[in-house]
Amino acid sequence: MYKTILCAIEASTEGKQVLAKAAEMAELYGSKLIVMHVLPYKLLPKDYQKELKDKISPKIEELCAGFNVPKKNRIIKVGKPYELICNEGIKRKADLIMLGTHSKKGIQALIGSTANGVANYADCDVSLVRIAKSSK
Predict the structure, then answer these.
(1) Domain CATH number, residue 126
(2) Is the pTM of this model over 0.70?
């Protein structure tokens, strides 16, 4: 059903939960899995953007390696998350975009601004993965 799945994650345990669901879905459908992380900064000098990418890259690589995502299918960008995710979905001909959502209060908090933007502007199916609350 899905040939290409774009999974947008954060470098966190929540991101790992989303990636686990996406990897499960990719295995189920025999899909190519692409993982994307967006640093939500707009007006930063290019050298500082590179520094931020270099800092987050090992964390994303570690998450992806645990799910056998090849390096060519790992993307880190800087900018407006929902726009970059939607554009990458078009560029990579994604059939499905998966990303996490948090359950708090109100519609914006319920799905988050990035998830809301992707859900409204993506050119393909969008699956929101509810992040399990950590037990404290």
Answers:
(1) 3.40.50.620
(2) yes
